[in-house]
Amino acid sequence: MRTYARFETSVPYRSRRNNRERRYLLVSFLWKGPGDERPRRYRESTGLEDSRASRRAWKRRLEVINEELLKTHGGLTGIVDLARYFPHFALKGAEPDCGQAQRRATVGDLVRDYLESLPGTEVGEYTRRQYEAVFRTHLLGSALAQVHLDELTDNHIKKWLGEVRQTTVRGGKLIQASTVNKILARVRTALTLAWKRGDIPRSVNPMDLVENLRQESAEPNPFTPDELLALFAVTEGQQRALYVAFALTGLRPGEMFGLCWDSVDMRNLELRVHQQVLENGKVSDQLKTPKSRRNVTMFEPVKTAIAALQAKNRLRTKFVFANRDGSPLNVRWQDDDPWRRALERAELEYRRLYLLRHTYTFLMLSAGKPLQWIAAQLGHRGVAKIDETYGRWRDAHKLPARPLDLDEFFRAIRNLPPFAAKTRPNLPRICQEFSSEAADG
Predict the structure, then answer these.
(1) Tens digits of per-residue pLDDT, 220-250?
(2) From the candidate CATH numbers 3.90.1150.10, 1.20.58.340, 3.40.718.10, 1.10.443.10, the one assigned to the domain spanning 225-440
(3) Domain residue spans of the chain
């Protein structure tokens, strides 16, 4: 059987964002377009980077294109509307008066325009790349991307949503409802913007008829001061200093690993956050949001822990927390084996390393710190998220009956032995009201 359509790859080009070499996935096809005497070779971009995932996403569509071209002998004996498959398809050779209708914008067009509009807004470069990955993985290769905006209904979106729900992740498990809702949130933003502009000519925004998936709300489970003391007691050196800094600054892991010695202000007791380490190990000055560029207060245990690292790390590396070769710690590795083993020795149930950031919020709320101050320390745009978290912890009886005495907590950290205990030691309780038994009573 003759093959009219096949995959090809574009010539390599350098990304302006990270100078990385990239290639686009192209579809090459034989087709008799307007003004052509016989079928000739056309090449159109799918808009996706050439990868195995992109080729899998486009495989069925390529088969359909090939079948249509085969039936019409490349457009000789019938009409093949290739604009359905290629959002930016131009009818090459067509005359202005050939009767061809002006191509209508699709959901794929909208998404690409939306991504191109993000630079220069409050959305940081790291977040923008996350948005791009979401759209590239879950939308641009789907049938929804080919739907014209003037035909879009909530049924198109719901059908696409059902396909996303069948996505499998590592271990063959279905994607979680919370993750699907995050993907849907990105699509909701773009489509709502198009509806407000009038690009979707309907009296009701189709996204208003699409609800988020129902998900079980996990009960907040931050570490209590006593659990933190146990965690600190079974670690030592840089590992203990890292966990102390996480729990008492609220920095995101990438921000913590991107700290350099010139970011530490011992005189004013502040950490200046101006860069982060990405999951691929690269250091970037693009933070999550503009508010992420901030100065964070160093409490006394953090100052002591970082000062102790100076003799070991400052002369051999510019990073506060570093590997043996002087490179910054890796986010994925630190959240895996070292963290799991520390929790096991402290006899604590597994919780992600990122939860230490939430624990910081928990401690500051328990100590009676103002919401505005906490939000500024965390790099949040406002207090809405903090206020919501406060309400959930209050309802779950996680906050103590009396304010947390930070001085007492810091004193207990200072009194820990310098060397790691092999198992969880018996330590004096910081605040009895933090225990679940007291809360239940």
Answers:
(1) 688 999 999 999 999 999 999 999 999 999 9
(2) 1.10.443.10
(3) 5-84, 107-209, 225-440
User: For strand 294-297 and strand 270-273, is the pairing parallel, antiparallel, or unpaired?
Assistant: antiparallel
Phi, psi of 385, rounded to the nearest 5 degrees: -65, -40
Q: Rounded distance, CA 194 to CA 201, Å?
A: 9
pLDDT confidence band for 438 (50 / 70 / 90): very low
The token duo for 363 is 């401690």
Distance CA 353, CA 339 (A): 7
Burial of 384 (0-12, 13-18, 19+ CB in 10 A): exposed
Confidence bin at 19 (pLDDT 50/70/90) = low
Q: What is the pLDDT of residues 400-411, one digit of tens each?
A: 667 889 999 999
Of residues 422 and 217, the one with the higher pLDDT is 422
What is the rounded distance in angstroms from the CA atom of residue 216 to the CA atom of residue 105? Answer: 37
H helix intervals, 198-236: 225-233
Distance between CA atoms of 361 and 375, rounded to whole angstroms?
9
The Cα 38–Cα 30 span in angstroms is: 9
Look up the CATH superfamily of 107-209: Tyrosine recombinase, N-terminal domain (1.10.150.130)
Comparison of pLDDT for 439 and 216, the residue scoring more: 216
* Predicted confidence (pLDDT) at residue 181 exceeds the cutoff of 70: yes
**Long-range residue pairs from 210-218, CB within 8 A, at least 24 positions apart, any chain:** 210/154, 210/157, 210/158, 210/161, 210/184, 212/181, 212/184, 213/165, 213/177, 213/180, 213/181, 213/184, 214/177, 215/176, 215/177, 215/178, 215/181
